[in-house]
Amino acid sequence: MSANSADAAAELEVVLVKAGRTKIRYPATLLADDGTRVSVRAPWAGEGVRDFGFVRFEPGDVFTEHYWRDRWYAVKEVRAGDGTLKGWYCDITRPAVRSGAELAVEDLDLDLWVSADGKDVLRLDEDEFAASGLADRDPGAAAAARSALDELEALARAEGLVGLL
After folding, report:
1. Quick one: which of 2, 45, 58, 129 could link to 49 by a disulfide (CB 3.0–4.6 Å)?
2. Distance between CA 74 and CA 160 in Å, rounded?
């Protein structure tokens, strides 16, 4: 399969790495790969329900996830099992790397939540990011991560994330 095409039935394994360890791996259906952005769809891969207070991820939820090879973030559209849009969960990551049927992404702790109506835009886990030590270990990556969070927040507040996708 070329980087510019997607086989509708193709499966990828998404591998999320955090602090040098695999946090989670899960199967996803490849929707598109244009050489820069890889889009996949997968059911909620966590165990049980995860209640953040502002949103609940639960069995039956479907995530349409967009990863970039040249950007420091991933944007995940989250829908309930009945198709109702819950919102967008954005991970600040190093650029994604696809190798065959595996898509690897390194989570850098910062996150952004945008509610379905676009009214709530929440910066998340800034304390975890500060405690991670990334700023000391890799100042360039830390600066890129902060810049990516600022960029996503500005997009979400100005025009929403739909135009990005």
Report:
1. 58
2. 15
Please say whether the beta carbons of 109 and 138 come within 8 A: no
Neighbours of 27 (CB within 10 A): 13
Tell which phi-psi region holds residue 109, choosing left (phi > 0), alpha (psi between -120 and 50) or beta: left
Residue 3 neighbours by CB distance under 10 Å: 12
Q: What distance in Å separates the CA atoms of residue 85 and residue 93, rounded to the nearest whole number?
A: 23
pLDDT tens figures, 8-63: 469 999 999 998 899 999 999 999 999 999 999 999 988 899 999 999 999 999 99
Angle CA 37–39–42, to nearest 5: 155
pTM: 0.91
Closest CA to 92 of 153, 163, 43: 153
